[in-house]
Fold this sequence. Notes:
Elements: H1 18-24, H2 29-56, H3 62-79, H4 85-92, H5 100-113, H6 118-130, H7 152-158, H8 162-176, H9 183-188, H10 192-218, H11 223-229, H12 237-243, H13 257-260, H14 268-273, H15 280-285, H16 294-301, H17 311-332
Helix pairs in contact: 2-3, 2-11, 4-5, 4-6, 8-10, 10-11
Amino acid sequence: MSFESNAKIDWYRCPIEPQVxxxxxxxxxLSGAIQTGLHLGWFFTTLSVCFLIFIQIxxxxxxxxxxxxxxxxxxxxxxxxxxxLIAVHELQHKTVFKTRGLNSLFERVYAFxxxxxxxxxxxSHAIHHHATCHVDFDGEVILPVKFRMMGRFWLGALAWDxxxxxxxxxxxxxxxxxxxxxxxxxHVLSSPEARRAHQRWAQCLLIGHTSLAVVFALTxxxxxxxxxxxxxxxxxWLGFLCGAAQHYxxxxxxxxxxxxxxxxxxxxITAFYYWNMQYHVEHHMYPAVPFYNLGKLRKALGxxxxxxPHGLIATWKEILEIRKQALNQRTSS
Length: 333
């Protein structure tokens, strides 16, 4: 599939008073530090708890310590998907911190921990914002979004799918060799400069993680290979429930983010994990507004926005009903 460039789309944006928007666009180093500090802190706290429990397991306590370890591993893994492109996404918008250099620093920290392809994503996501879900221009999100809740899906959602990890490793290996496959990757990384930066970052991921894994193994702490090296690649159930809701069942080739993106509201814990991206329509309309002000932005835009489901259960009832209707139409046609 080939993609075109230089999309000219006359997007609709809900009106807002300029002074209100200017206030909401204010960045804060304090707010950014609170989010990143707690976010990274929680990841390393669950990692540490898992590690401490594991090294205490012995022949006399394994029958209750092992289930406790598995439970903590599930909690640790649940955080994993949000350490990747969700966090990288916000930091690449340069809206988390007022100091631009802090955004770049923590973008690379998160991208390293999660093996994220942040160089490709920076180019890709700029196009996605400019031409959201327009099939001739946007290869990041192609509608209709498809998923199958069978077999390996549940393995990766509730435990670990080794195929996902192998794909991540092999893709990073090929990128480190300068090999890029896929129409969308080829499109967004068309310049030699972008390809060199992309290759260097993949090499950094491989060298950095391999070096740490060797240190973990040589020091007898091989469990850290699971908890850190691959600590963002299992138990992706919550990341899927949040991420798939962004555009599933929405419309392509329309110049209105209210029609191609979905907002939902959720608990403060989910919002914290998800960097407030449940306000997805609002984010697309005004991407210069920091994630910690998106709730205020929604209130400011008022009744020009559609009503939204509250909570992931209500959101997924809506999504699964859309999916059911689509499958029925496909069967009857």
